[in-house]
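okkk here we go again. third time trying to get the flavin-adenine dinucleotide bound version out, last two times i messed up the smiles copy paste (missing a bracket lol). double checked this time i swear
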Amino acid sequence: MKVIVVGAGAAGLMAAHDLVANGAEVLLLESLNRTGGRIHTQNLPGFTNHVEAGAEFIHGNLPLTLKLMKQSGLTYTPTSGKMYQSVNGKLQCGFGENKSWEDFYEAMSDLKNDRTVSELLDFQFKAKKYEKLRREVSDRAQGLDLADISRLSVFGIRGEWANEETQFRPDSGYSELLQWLYNQTVSPKFKLILNQKVERIDWANDEVTVFTNTESFHADAVLLTLPPVFYKDIAFLPQIQDTISLFETIGFGEVTKLALEFEWPFWENDYPDLGFLFAAEGFTFWTQYPKRSPLLIGWLGNDYAGNYDKFSDEELLKKALLNLEKAFHSKFPVKELYRTGTVFRHTKNSVSRGGYSWPTPQTRKSVKTLQKGIENTIWFAGEALYLEKGAATVEAALQSGKKAASEIIKSLKK
Ligand SMILES: Cc1cc2nc3c(=O)[nH]c(=O)nc-3n(C[C@H](O)[C@H](O)[C@H](O)COP(=O)(O)OP(=O)(O)OC[C@H]3O[C@@H](n4cnc5c(N)ncnc54)[C@H](O)[C@@H]3O)c2cc1C
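finally!!
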């Protein structure tokens, strides 16, 4: 049995690993000149430590990620820093911890039929006293979920929003985990080819021909692990337009991440437990707490990322520094302490065309259909196709790859 896996991100590598472990022959095709996809740990000149261009945190007690971390012998550290907001000339500790938010969590949990976050706010939180809450909910959805509340499903996010768990960071960077997974998969039955952009797939029952920019390959089945917005690049023969259009019911947000390195962690005397800082104009910053590091990560979610896309990297870094200076109320000479910076764009016009997925009220039904694949020949995986705990994260990608591999193996045994 030969399977072509398309996309060498976390989902593709996990699926390839499990397929090979179960006796399948696997050809993994990746359009970029590297594996990892939205996981990309980089060692850049001028930075003291590695920087994550994409995924950085393990968002809670996520069983598969933590199991693989342990198996690989890689270490990870809890990120116990506090959240601060810049309010009226002062940094205030805490976010989302007031009565309005409690009311909102309760309303989300009491909801019997799914609706969008906007609908819930319009229905139950129209009163003037909830004005601030409405703004904060939208900012949180944009900032953390990269989502538009007018399409964001309450059922899809209420578990995650109400139960925040301790997060962790892989100490030596996320890419090492994927490198380990790749090393575990290496065998005569496994082949990875980079720089292969899949453009067309001809298929019949139990038979596929996959055409890339340079070659064509045959197999019994194909597993596609692309982000939702990439499916429109591939021509299928016969067409599977009804199935592919299901990806349009999955939200996919934009994000721009900045890394700013300073002479020293200037905030540490005044705010020794600073984890996250919600600043103005859509900027969120975070430290490497509890690790002592002069690195601050900046984050612009969804609309903010899109709006700032016309800025050059240099202009954006300048804007971030100005914003930081304001957030700390000019207490520190931020610009003088700045050493170097870089920008990672995951916006519509970038190579990754977006950051990660978010659920609409239609997503769950679509995902169920997509997970079944097409006639045991075309299969789908990727972070957007796993909606349980850890949705949209590396965990989701790994879980979806594992699940798809198991379905493919089952289909073979029938
Ligand atoms: C800025 C940012 C920060 C994030 N932070 C976190 C975090 O802190 N924690 C967390 O858990 N998650 C985080 N995520 C999400 C996480 O990175 C993703 O959920 C996960 O890495 C997705 O893995 P995947 O395999 O599903 O997709 P991808 O990693 O996108 O892999 C898909 C692969 O398919 C390839 N491909 C696309 N089209 C083709 C084609 N036609 N032919 C061949 N190959 C193709 C792509 O190049 C890519 O390598 C973040 C994402 C971003 C962008």
